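Cont'd.
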Amino acid sequence: MSFSLEEIYETARMVLFEKLDIRTTTLGINIKDCIHSNFSIFKDRVYRRLVKNGKKLIKHAKQIEVKYGIPIVNKRISITPISMVMETHAIPRRFIEMAETIDSAAEEAEIDYIGGFGALVHKGMTKTERILIEILPDVLSSTKRVCSFLNVGSTNTGMNIDAVNLVGKMLLETAKKTPCGCGCCKFVVFVNAPEDNPFMAGAFHGPGEPDLSLNIGISGPGVVRSVVEKNRDCNLTELSEIIKRTVFKITRAGELIGRELAKKMGISFGIVDISLASTTAPGDSVAKVIEAFGIEKIGAHGSTLAIALLMDAAKKGGAMASSSVGGLSGTFIPVSEDLGMAEAVGKGALNIEKLEALTAVCSVGLDMVAIPGDTPAETISALIADELAIGIINNKTTAARIIPVPGKKAGDKVAFGGLLGKMPVMPVNKFSSSNFMKRGGRLPSPITGLRN
Amino acid sequence: MAKKLLFITVIGKDRKGIVARISNLLFKKNINIEDISQKIIRKYFVMAMLVDIKEANCDMEKISKDLQALGKEMGLIVQVQHENIFKMMHRI
């Protein structure tokens, strides 16, 4: 046989017992050419394009799942940042109508989330973008499948603090309009946002992208944990090598499936995002990988080193496996969506300050973090700005998905439902940053941004 | 016509008739067995079959579904995968 039985068993085992799957196939769709001065025609064009391509994605993805016996968990769409196509229709009501159009297109095509209802405001905001941000609470509360993002800074431009200040208020308002504040789960604020990220809620089809592009997000915390558990006594150099080899294999699976799916659909293949992505399923947890390293609970001293090691090994293995690594390609540590992370918060092992430190060495930021509903808007903005400053200075993507849960205090339990998971509400610092944040303006781009 | 090769992986407790019943199902579907290998790995009985489905009388989805149903009946896990996935994961 051309493969040993051990090799065949290894692949089968990863899928059957260790939850290896393709976490997401995300089809990026350009909608710039749908623009029309008649808003009804414009909406209709967007609807048709999304439904047609969405259905095509679902059909072909199902065939590939059968061929390789690997589940493709999510099939999603990202679109051109909505503010770019709404400039000539910048009326709040029209933003809502467009969001509803996209929402019904997603439903019709059986796509669970469509990302891109956001804007790139890393240097400044147009009038349209300001209107968009103000109307986001209504968009996020009146639609089910529409996801939103803002890119509020980059290493080259610095950080738009005025936009960050709007985000704090916007999140509080969104939270009030949705059960447990879950509308906030559909919004991500970034710096250095990649234009080809396949992961929700922050996916969008950037202005540098072609008409259609297929991006893949692989999974694999379960596979990595299993291999770490089998190698309890090796040193860190050996551990890194073992992880590297494992991530190589799972990335190759992603690369194969992505390329073949793109070819079948007759479109260009975008990128493989090699992020290790957790789910709420037991065993599919990045926190549990860290525990398998020998750390009692994630958040304990040593956790930053452990995540750094994991992250670096994953990147090295992934980069060797695919010539199209892109997107976020870090390691996700969402709190509510990762059973081990939520558990660590409950046991007092992990607090928001340590979480922030962990994000300095991995992707992608303060992700799915529930905070008390009475947190002042300025404090939320400052919490976000801290996280984003890490990205600006270190020339990497960082992001925040913060949920101020109405009526809940630190330590109360909150469940967002399904894949969004549950967690105890995390306490935030009680002291005010209000006078600092009120200064507004723009954080200048750091000296590391001057690379020409 | 070029061969269309799949790997069938069977995992579970060893028992009589595994090879016989799977081979019989493949025969009925006009699928040729190219190679077969089995052993005990970490307490599991593991068998892999390399089969060519170019002349099969049904599509891959049906093959996969029927094999999995047979596996369930016999208390075994059956996984069917195109050979390309093994090439990608295990060969540089």
